[in-house]
Amino acid sequence: MVVVHVVDHQSQPSSSVDPLVVEFLNWLTVERGRSRNTLIAYQRDLNRYQRHLDQRERTIAVAQAEDVVAFVRALQQEGLAPASVNRCLVAVRGLHRFLVFEELRADDPAADIEVPSTPKGLPKALTQEQVATLLDSIVSDDPVSRRDQALLETLYGTGARISEVVGLSLGDVDLHDGLVRLMGKGSKERIVPLGRMAATALTRWFEPGGRSSLEPRQWARRGDAEAVFLNQRGGRLTRQGAYGILTDRAAAARLTVHLSPHVLRHSCATHMLDHGADIRTVQELLGHASISTTQIYTKVSAERLLAVYRAAHPRAVGR
């Protein structure tokens, strides 16, 4: 087998690198085409694992499940970030899986060791004032402005994913009843309300001087003729195009916060919970398969409530 030299001198163990680790790193290079930086990261994490086994007077060839569990606990006790613990365990699990696959070991001591859950970061949400600043900054009546207004109002008004909004076809929008049909992950369909402002913006977009002004003489692709949102060449607006519209409009509105279509989705959910919406309703609106995904927004709302309370109540924080 080709020997791959990916030694990271700053992470060398006191003893030599275990030949089984070398076999694994070579396999990652030759069979999987992993980059040098990836190999160095794997070697660093496996060196740490090997040092842990040395202290327990074990080797990789005979390590047991309790050794892997102890390794994870040792990393956590060192104060390593959860993401770093996960990365180390992924390397260890990959190594032992490889050894079984190559018949270098009969059993996999890491097979039943679960990767510790990494705490989810809190979603970033705009304030209601920032959303108003963004949406109210579009004042022109040209076709592009009408489209941009309808796009942003729909994103914020429905809490939809950007892929769901750019994938809308004309038959998915019911302006009479103020509803829109979205196709979510796993081709799961859901019907959600548009809201008055989004419905008004879409109505203006569909009126003469709006969408029809961007229609081409001949449609380039099948399906473009049914697209709700068009680019300036008359094709269906893409996710990248929608992202560019949002960032350009945010810059024009002089908003300095980081903005993406997903931020508007976060903002919709957070603001609804701020105003007393039931979490199950928000789950249905956003199309979350599990309510645990939606529950993170309750923490956002609770923390915002606490921040406002501390800032406003004269005896909230003491002297």
Describe this structure in words.
With 319 residues, the chain is mainly alpha-helical. It folds into two domains: 9-101, Orthogonal Bundle (DNA polymerase, domain 1), CATH 1.10.150.130; 128-312, hpI Integrase, Chain A (Orthogonal Bundle), CATH 1.10.443. Helices cover 51% and strands 4% of the residues. The chain contains twelve helices and three strands. It has helices spanning 19-30, 36-55, 65-77, 82-101, 128-136, 143-158, 162-166, 196-206, 239-252, 261-274, 279-286, 291-312, and strands at 173-174, 179-183, 189-193. A three-stranded antiparallel sheet has the order 1-2-3, with no helix packed on it. Strand 1 (173-174) and strand 2 (179-183) form a beta hairpin. The chain is elongated and about 75 Å long. The termini are far apart. Residues 1-5 and 7-14 have low confidence and may be disordered.
Present the secondary structure layout.
Layout (H helix, E strand, L loop, with lengths): L18 H12 L5 H20 L9 H13 L4 H20 L26 H9 L6 H16 L3 H5 L6 E2 L4 E5 L5 E5 L2 H11 L32 H14 L8 H14 L4 H8 L4 H22 L7
Antiparallel strand pairs: 1-2, 2-3
Could you state the order of secondary-structure elements as H and E? HHHHHHHEEEHHHHH
Reported by name, the CATH topology of the largest domain is: hpI Integrase, Chain A
* Known CATH architecture of the largest domain: Orthogonal Bundle
Major sheet strand order: 1-2-3
Number of helices: 12
Q: Output the structural class.
A: mainly alpha
The total strand number stands at 3
Which blocks of ≥5 consecutive residues have pLDDT under 50? 1-5, 7-14
Mean residue pLDDT: 86
